[in-house]
Amino acid sequence: PEIPTLEEFINQLKDILKAEQKRTSNAWINLSRLSYLFESKYQLTLNQVVSLRLPGKLTTDIFSDYPKDFVTHHIPGTSNFYITLFEKPISFIKKTSSLKTIQLKPTVKPLSKIESKSDLEEILVKLLKDLKTNYKDPYVPIAHIATEFKKQYSRPITQLMRDLNLKGTFPKFLQSLGAFKLKKVGKAYQVALRLDGLNALVIEQ
Predict the structure, then answer these.
(1) Domains observed in the chain
(2) What is the pLDDT of residues 143-153, one digit of tens each?
(3) Dihedral over alpha carbons 94, 198, 138, 131 (to 10 degrees)
């Protein structure tokens, strides 16, 4: 079989990922599964294409080298390597919803009871869990969490952080918490729950 160009290769991988996401209703696809599907469809291995088009690179590099197309997730201590398609944040929102109409369940703890870093972390985890039901990707823009917090508590998250003597920016605060993982998209940060990365369901566009 003829080795595809790099551009063709990227598009072939994206097509396979989209089809498998639709079939499984799961945004994250295991690399071994993707390799099997690619070889079955094109009678070529990923290694064959990568070695010719990207000499000296590993198969996994094709995904990390193209962050505008792919997002990767590796489970530490294992060989499990997962891939999903990168999409602009606005496309993560269900067609039936908009940022203005998303209604979240009120969080349990009143503002007067947020007295520590752990209290605030608990609130933010609940907010993110509620917010991310409106996204097909586990990552949610940080700005949306801050907006929802202010909507529910009538107070900016940064002001509460100052009241609790929590120094630094909101993104740095989230990075300091064990429950969250962050990534930067352009100039903006997005956040996901550390344990939920592989549980995102695909929402039909």
Answers:
(1) 6-86 (3.30.420), 91-193 (1.10.10)
(2) 888 888 888 77
(3) 70
